[in-house]
Amino acid sequence: MDVSLTMWAVTIAGLCALIAIDFLIGRKPHDVSIKEAGIWTVVWIALAALFGIGLLIFSGGQPAGEFFAGFITEKSLSVDNLFVFVLIMGKFAVPSQYQQRVLLVGVLIALVLRAVFIAAGAAIITSFAWVFYIFGAFLIYTAWKLIKEAQSDDGDEEFEENKLLKAAERRLGVADRYHGTKLFVQQHGKRVMTPMLVVMLAIGTTDVLFALDSIPAIFGLTQDPYIVFTANAFALMGLRQLYFLIGGLLKKLVHLSYGLSVILGFIGVKLVLHALHESGVHVPEISIPFSLGFIVLVLAVTTVTSLRASKKQAERELAEGRVEHAEV
Fold this sequence. Notes:
Layout: H1 5-25, H2 34-59, H3 61-91, H4 99-127, H5 131-152, H6 163-172, E1 184-187, E2 190-193, H7 195-219, H8 225-237, H9 239-246, H10 256-278, H11 288-327
Antiparallel strand pairs: 1-2
Helix pairs in contact: 1-8, 2-3, 2-8, 2-9, 3-7, 3-8, 3-10, 3-11, 4-7, 4-8, 5-10, 7-10, 10-11
């Protein structure tokens, strides 16, 4: 796509306006209900769909297909990231009424950092076509690693703070309790961070690690920086509401890692084929319609098998409980 600076400015201004509206709606700390989370999840998905339809009308089927494939992939990877967000919230014992503020600012930090990653990635692939081999190999490796982690079934996983976060805590100090939504307070004559700021930084910086998977993945579907950025933006901005909507369902998506590994492996192969094609090797390239259909099919199958497996597990545990009760 030939996107002018004016179009970039209008798009960024529009996204900033949506973020501002989201911030104003959630400015008062409160427990987010399932109804509220559901309504706003639908709103964000509808806005993404309208944007994709706009691309279809004004730019054609190819950019629209790339956007929808990228958006669905990024959204799926974001759902997997929610597992880590749950661990972070538990690690820092974030009060329920403050969790939406934490997620809002954390996701905003993540969006800014991803914009930097996208700009760097776009510059690299423009100058060095061979980087697609690296991206492809990395995604295939990540897919294999996801399968190994899923098979390990480690139920005692805990969040560990990264070095940057630990350094900030040592240098600035951290208050011993939450002070509402304040980010800094005076304690013993010294200005220190509150746990609220620490957990926001934890979510924002942790997303950098997620970007190492998601950015190469979406570049495997499109090399257009505008589509990469907007797909990431729409996927991230609805993440706060999605956290509250499916928080209780996350444990039931037992096969999600397998589904994501298949998708990442598929995109990795697609990137390698694209790199070979760019090098003059006559190999088949995977089309965007096929990619979009494959991603949707894998997610649908993963969701259905996950829910069935969770249901069978619940029935098994219930039956075992009855047996133990009868023996007692």
